[in-house]
Write a structure and sequence with these properties.
The protein is mainly β. The protein contains one helix and seven strands, in the order αβββββββ.
Protein backbone atom coordinates (compact mmCIF):
# COMPACT_ATOMS: atom_id res chain seq x y z
CA UNK A 1 0.00 0.00 0.00
CA UNK A 2 2.88 2.37 0.79
CA UNK A 3 4.39 1.72 -2.63
CA UNK A 4 1.08 2.47 -4.35
CA UNK A 5 0.68 5.79 -2.50
CA UNK A 6 4.30 6.75 -3.22
CA UNK A 7 3.89 5.93 -6.92
CA UNK A 8 0.70 8.02 -7.08
CA UNK A 9 2.45 10.99 -5.45
CA UNK A 10 5.40 10.76 -7.83
CA UNK A 11 3.42 10.25 -11.04
CA UNK A 12 0.74 12.90 -10.40
CA UNK A 13 3.10 15.91 -10.18
CA UNK A 14 4.91 14.80 -13.33
CA UNK A 15 1.67 14.66 -15.27
CA UNK A 16 0.63 18.03 -13.84
CA UNK A 17 3.74 19.58 -15.43
CA UNK A 18 2.72 18.53 -18.95
CA UNK A 19 2.51 21.52 -21.26
CA UNK A 20 -0.09 21.76 -23.98
CA UNK A 21 -1.21 24.57 -26.26
CA UNK A 22 -2.86 24.59 -29.69
CA UNK A 23 -0.55 24.54 -32.71
CA UNK A 24 -1.74 25.53 -36.18
CA UNK A 25 0.48 24.14 -38.96
CA UNK A 26 0.13 25.62 -42.45
CA UNK A 27 2.03 23.61 -45.07
CA UNK A 28 3.09 24.71 -48.55
CA UNK A 29 5.10 21.70 -49.76
CA UNK A 30 5.26 22.51 -53.52
CA UNK A 31 5.33 18.83 -54.48
CA UNK A 32 7.90 17.79 -51.88
CA UNK A 33 7.21 14.60 -49.95
CA UNK A 34 7.76 15.89 -46.41
CA UNK A 35 6.12 14.65 -43.23
CA UNK A 36 5.86 17.31 -40.49
CA UNK A 37 4.88 16.75 -36.86
CA UNK A 38 4.63 19.43 -34.17
CA UNK A 39 5.80 19.17 -30.57
CA UNK A 40 5.08 21.27 -27.48
CA UNK A 41 8.38 21.17 -25.61
CA UNK A 42 7.86 23.73 -22.84
CA UNK A 43 5.60 26.65 -21.98
CA UNK A 44 7.79 28.98 -24.09
CA UNK A 45 9.35 26.52 -26.56
CA UNK A 46 8.04 24.59 -29.55
CA UNK A 47 9.39 22.11 -32.03
CA UNK A 48 8.74 20.78 -35.50
CA UNK A 49 10.17 17.48 -36.76
CA UNK A 50 10.54 17.14 -40.53
CA UNK A 51 11.12 13.92 -42.43
CA UNK A 52 11.91 13.77 -46.15
CA UNK A 53 10.08 10.82 -47.70
CA UNK A 54 11.03 11.68 -51.29
CA UNK A 55 13.96 10.78 -53.52
CA UNK A 56 15.37 14.32 -53.85
CA UNK A 57 16.79 16.79 -51.31
CA UNK A 58 14.33 19.36 -49.97
CA UNK A 59 14.95 22.85 -48.57
CA UNK A 60 12.40 23.90 -45.93
CA UNK A 61 11.70 27.15 -44.11
CA UNK A 62 9.48 27.34 -41.03
CA UNK A 63 8.14 30.52 -39.45
CA UNK A 64 7.06 30.15 -35.81
CA UNK A 65 4.60 32.87 -34.65
CA UNK A 66 3.47 33.39 -31.07
CA UNK A 67 1.16 36.38 -30.90
CA UNK A 68 2.81 39.81 -30.85
CA UNK A 69 6.42 38.57 -30.79
CA UNK A 70 8.60 38.66 -33.88
CA UNK A 71 8.34 35.41 -35.85
CA UNK A 72 11.23 32.97 -35.46
CA UNK A 73 12.41 31.64 -38.84
CA UNK A 74 14.32 28.38 -39.18
CA UNK A 75 15.78 26.85 -42.36
CA UNK A 76 16.92 23.30 -42.99
CA UNK A 77 17.96 21.14 -45.96
CA UNK A 78 16.86 17.51 -45.82
CA UNK A 79 18.50 14.79 -47.86
CA UNK A 80 16.42 11.84 -49.07
CA UNK A 81 15.21 9.79 -46.09
CA UNK A 82 16.61 12.26 -43.55
CA UNK A 83 14.78 13.59 -40.49
CA UNK A 84 15.65 16.79 -38.59
CA UNK A 85 14.10 18.81 -35.76
CA UNK A 86 13.49 22.56 -35.78
CA UNK A 87 12.90 24.45 -32.52
CA UNK A 88 11.94 27.95 -31.47
CA UNK A 89 12.10 29.57 -28.04
CA UNK A 90 9.97 32.59 -27.15
CA UNK A 91 10.22 35.27 -24.47
CA UNK A 92 6.59 34.79 -23.40
CA UNK A 93 4.46 31.76 -22.63
CA UNK A 94 2.88 30.28 -25.75
CA UNK A 95 -0.91 30.48 -25.78
CA UNK A 96 -1.43 29.56 -29.43
CA UNK A 97 1.36 28.81 -31.90
CA UNK A 98 1.14 29.26 -35.66
CA UNK A 99 3.74 27.60 -37.88
CA UNK A 100 4.03 28.24 -41.63
CA UNK A 101 6.12 25.59 -43.35
CA UNK A 102 7.35 26.10 -46.92
CA UNK A 103 9.37 23.41 -48.69
CA UNK A 104 11.01 23.41 -52.13
CA UNK A 105 12.39 20.27 -53.83
CA UNK A 106 15.91 20.76 -55.22
Amino acid sequence: MKRLCFAALVIFPLSALAVSYPVDLEQDLNGAEVLASTETIDRDMAGLVLQNLGDRPVECTASFRNGPEMPRTRRVTLESGESKPMTAKFKRDVIRLRIKLTCEPQ
